[in-house]
UniProtKB/TrEMBL annotation:
Transmembrane region(s): 6-27, 34-55, 75-93, 100-117, 137-163, 175-203, 223-246, 267-289, 304-323, 330-352
Keyword Lipoprotein in annotation: no
Cellular compartments annotated: Membrane
Protein name: C-type cytochrome biogenesis protein CcsB
Species assigned in the record: hot springs metagenome
Pfam families: Cytochrom_C_asm
GO biological process, one term: cytochrome complex assembly
Amino acid sequence: MDSSQFFGISSIAYILAMVAYIAYLVFKNSTVGIIATTITSVGFVSQTIAFFIRGKEFYDIGQMGIMRAIPLTNLYESLIFFVWCLILGYLIIEWKYKNRSFGAFITPIAGMALAFIDISGMDKNIHPLIPALQSNWLLAHVTLSFISYATFAISFATAIMYLAVTTDNKKSGAYIFWTVTLGIFLSILIAMGIDFLTFKIVVKTPEAFIKSYLFKATFRSSSGMVVLFSYALSGVFVFLVWRYGYALKKLIESFSISYELLDDLTYKNIAIGFPIFTLGGLIFGAIWADQAWGRYWSWDPKETWSLITWFVYAFYLHARFLRGWRGNKIAIVAVIGFVSTVFTYLGVNLLLSGLHSYGGM
């Protein structure tokens, strides 16, 4: 079996696990919870094996030494590695806190990443590195960046859970913020699914998918009526999430998850991810840029948005420790930080051009 087959097994496992964890959250059936954990563990082992096999495949093609044969050189591999780190972080949390309800909020992020890979026509082939990417700093820069992204994703999930648990008034800013954010997240996921069901995707790159297919069946349809209906339906969906978001609060509370634990997990993941992002994403990235292009900083779109993301999380830590922010305000900052992270990771790659276009990174 080659790496793609093991990656396929892990993708199916994670999507099944997402469904199982959501079912566990709703029905509170311990057997379903055990099944969800088992499926997730199988997917994680399969993905780990796939990474080793793909590394061997990459080494056989490139013949550039083991340190340059790490499969983290394009958008596909980086997304897969992000999912691997995310699932590893989740399994550690589940093992430490003996609570599976977190899986219903963390595995959907992995599921969305995998769905994007499958519907976007992303190139999964192995290609030799161009000279600009043939550096050991690539391994340090990319690996640490995506480890930090995974911790930020977990902090996003726990921050959303915190806001759900601590907000009662449907007219409060915090309640409106988290329900609208969750509603938009789910609306985008549904719209991408409609694209997949409507069109036969024939493009080979995510950039071509964005241009030719993304939201073409809904928000970017050639029919004005379809566009109007899509936005109206999305608005209705967001309204329903706002209207019945209180039910999610009851579900989370039924698992005896305290808001103190959610706040602590949000903080700990950001406290771990921020220095890793600072070192790997910014400092090592600058060193790599100097070696590849002769300058440490060029205000490339990804560099600029990485700095914006850094400032958001720096503000989170500053506000928490020096200004004494707690509660909903600080949780909202954590959510905004991950939105910025997603745009830094995917939005810049797919919507803007720059030096990081090499290898789809």
